[in-house]
Write a structure and sequence with these properties.
single chain; Four Helix Bundle (Hemerythrin (Met), subunit A); two-stranded antiparallel ribbon; mainly alpha; globular
Length: 170
């Protein structure tokens, strides 16, 4: 199994966790926050998908699905199109109130783009430097593992918050 297949498997696993976290979720469940400082399921799924979209587009020199496929317009969030959620305030987190269908649609679109970018990747490709702002410079492999790690953590958090919402009767 080459790097392409391993990475695709990882992103497929993220997609399955995201789907499970939002499956048949009501607007109230998606917006549920255990306290005013916590993230909601909707924000977590939006954020992990935005990070994946943003970071892979940058690493591969492509445009983001968020703007190219009009997801920014469809979501109608009060943020700049470049926003990914980093540093969001509690009010900004609370403003992400969207349907499960919208979240799934955007996530699946980003997932499809991700698979398209990864499918023909070679062992030499993963050594390509994609970010010279760090010392040492960041390779494509390191950037992809970083995105996978971040996505898995947030997908797990979304699943956990969904469980808390269920226990709270939401």
């Amino acid at each position: 199994m080459g790097p392409s297949q391993v990475l695709i498997d990882a992103f497929d696993r993220i997609q399955k966790i995201v789907h499970a976290a939002i499956r048949d979720a009501s607007a109230e469940t998606l917006a549920y926050r255990p306290d005013a400082e916590a993230n909601s399921v909707a924000w977590l799924v939006w954020h992990l998908t935005r990070v994946q979209d943003d970071h892979l587009a940058d690493a591969f020199g492509t445009r983001q699905v968020w703007t190219d496929d009009d997801w920014a317009v469809r979501f109608g969030l009060p943020f700049a199109d470049s926003a990914t959620g980093y540093g969001h305030s509690r009010d900004e987190v609370a403003s992400v109130r969207v349907s499960a269908e919208l979240l799934r649609g955007y996530h699946d679109n980003v997932h499809d783009r991700t698979i398209e970018l990864l499918k023909d990747m070679t062992a030499q490709d993963v050594e390509r430097i994609v970010d010279t702002a760090w010392d040492p410079p960041v390779t494509l492999a390191v950037r992809l593992i970083s995105v996978i790690s971040d996505d898995l953590q947030h997908a797990g958090q979304a699943s956990y918050v969904r469980g808390l919402a269920k226990r709270a009767g939401v």
